[in-house]
Amino acid sequence: MRPLIPEPFAPDSREAASPTLELVSKAPTLYRIEACVVRPGVSAATSKGTVIEFDTSAGQSDVLPGPADLLTMAFAACVLKNVERFSQLLAFRYQQASITVTSERQDSPPKMIRVTYSLRLITDEPDHRVDLMHRNIRQHGTIYNTLAAACEVSGKVVSERPSPRIGEGAAPGNFRTPPACRGG
Questions:
Q1: Nearby residues of 67 by Cβ (< 8 Å), 6 or more positions away
Q2: Cα within 13 Å of Cα(63), Cβ side
Q3: Banded pLDDT at 110 (limits 50, 70, 90)
Q4: How far apart are CA 37 and CA 53, in angstroms?
Q5: What is the SS3 assignment for the chain?
Q6: Is the pLDDT reported for residue 100 higher than 90?
Q7: Which domains does the chain have, with CATH numbers?
Q8: Rounded Cα gap, residues 28 and 116, in angstroms
């Protein structure tokens, strides 16, 4: 499959010069983690040399993420990874990207039933290119597609215009940025 190209829109020089992604059928990519109980209620997983602790208590920790939190984070990571990926493939300029994701779990039978998100992009790209980015994220996101096959997934992209032009040190828009995204 190729990234979606906006057929109703005349391609500008960035779109014409952008490479297209050919997804070639090949052996599945394998992911391997190791996890163990560290102490009662706390477990840890190792992937690519990074250790992540998570909650495995019978209740819910106020500090550590549990399995549903990790799944919700994986969805956020997938969307943001694809913003970076498609910004290169589509020559899409953005200054900052952030996402808020809410997932809903039902108790019986226990499963996730809904994921909603709001992706915020600070960009000077026109609306049709923001829509193109969103369509590609929905079509090519691995975690996105996996969850969409199992539960309802819906969301929107909110684009905000940067104050000065991109690349001139413009301040981020007026929205809450997670501490890890603030660079300090």
A1: 54
A2: 6
A3: very high
A4: 9
A5: CCCCCCCCCCCCHHHHHCCCCCCCCCCCCCCCCEEEEEECCEEEEEECCEEEEEECCCCCCCCCCCHHHHHHHHHHHHHHHHHHHHHHHCCCCCCEEEEEEEEEEECCCCEEEEEEEEEEEECCCCHHHHHHHHHHHHHHCHHHHHHHHHCEEEEEEEEECCCCCCCCCCCCCCCCCCHHHCCC
A6: yes
A7: 34-65 (no CATH), 66-164 (3.30.300.20)
A8: 28
Q: Could you report the per-residue pLDDT of 167-177, keeping only the tens digit for each?
A: 554 444 433 44
pTM for this entry? 0.78
Under 8 Å between Cβ of 124 and 161: yes
Evaluate whether 56 touches 37 at the Cβ level (below 8 Å).
yes
CB-based contacts of 65, cutoff 8 Å, min separation 6: 54, 55, 73
Report the distance separating Cα 117 and Cα 24, nearest Å: 29
Interval 123-154: pLDDT, tens? 999 999 999 999 999 999 999 999 999 999 99
Q: Residue 123 in contact with residue 130, Cβ under 8 Å? A: yes
